[in-house]
Amino acid sequence: QRSSIYYCDPMRSGQKGTIEQAHTMLRMILPKGTSFEFLTQWDVNLIVNHINSTPRESLGGQTPYDAALKTLGEDVLKAFQLKPISPDEVNLTPKLIRFKK
């Protein structure tokens, strides 16, 4: 089976669809100009878990974590060290990383 590859033209954020919301959330945690050099795998997992625990309108109010859980199952998510973050503990600010170090 072949895979389809999609790409966006440079500087055309409107072509990216729903990925822009995840990019916006990432930039809330790691503002533009922030070096990614200092990030450890633990930091990246933490960021991904917080972003994926934020409900999305495009998923009918579900979180990406919950949608993936239904599709892939818990074993797959655990293998990638993905886990849900309680809604009252989700932190999409630079403090997520700075205060964990």
Layout of helices and strands:
Blueprint: H1 19-29, H2 41-51, H3 64-72, H4 74-79, H5 95-98
Q: What can you see in these coordinates?
A:
This protein is an all-alpha fold and 101 residues long. It has one domain. 41% of the residues lie in helices and 0% in strands. It has five helices and no strands. It has helices at 19-29, 41-51, 64-72, 74-79, 95-98. The longest helix is centred in the first third of the chain and has 11 residues, at 19-29. It is globular, with a radius of gyration of 15 Å. The chain starts with 18 loop residues before the first helix and ends with a helix. The mean pLDDT is 89.
Q: What is the end-to-end distance?
A: 44 Å
What is the residue-mean pLDDT, rounded to a whole number?
89
SSE-based structural type: mainly alpha
Rg calculated over all Cα atoms: 15 Å
For the report, how would you describe the main beta sheet? none
Helix content: 40-55%
Shape category:
globular
Give me the number of helical elements.
5
Number of domains: 1
In percent terms, what proportion of residues is strand?
A: under 5%
Low-confidence stretches: none
Q: Can you write the helix and strand succession as a string?
A: HHHHH
| Count of extended strands | 0
